[in-house]
Amino acid sequence: MRIPVGFKVNGEKVAKFSQRVQRVIRVLDKLPADELLTSVNLATLTSHPMNGGITQEFALRDYHEKVDSALLWGSRKSIALLRKQLAEAEENE
Both ends of the chain: CA-CA distance in Å? Predict the structure, then answer.
């Protein structure tokens, strides 16, 4: 996991996110609020495999959620909405 942007290490600011993370964020931010992608589809759109390491990126923590056995990706808004609906469904059970 990378150190979040804005922190200083040995007095120097942490650099921007990697090119890969920036590309993933750009793709996800363009999605409508009601659309989600699987890791396979996101990998195709970004030309990067969505292996386990990318899910550990601090900058992407608000862009994915695991539902059942599927890791779903979306904009921050869509993932927040998904998490809210999942929480409501759990409360009603």
Answer: 35
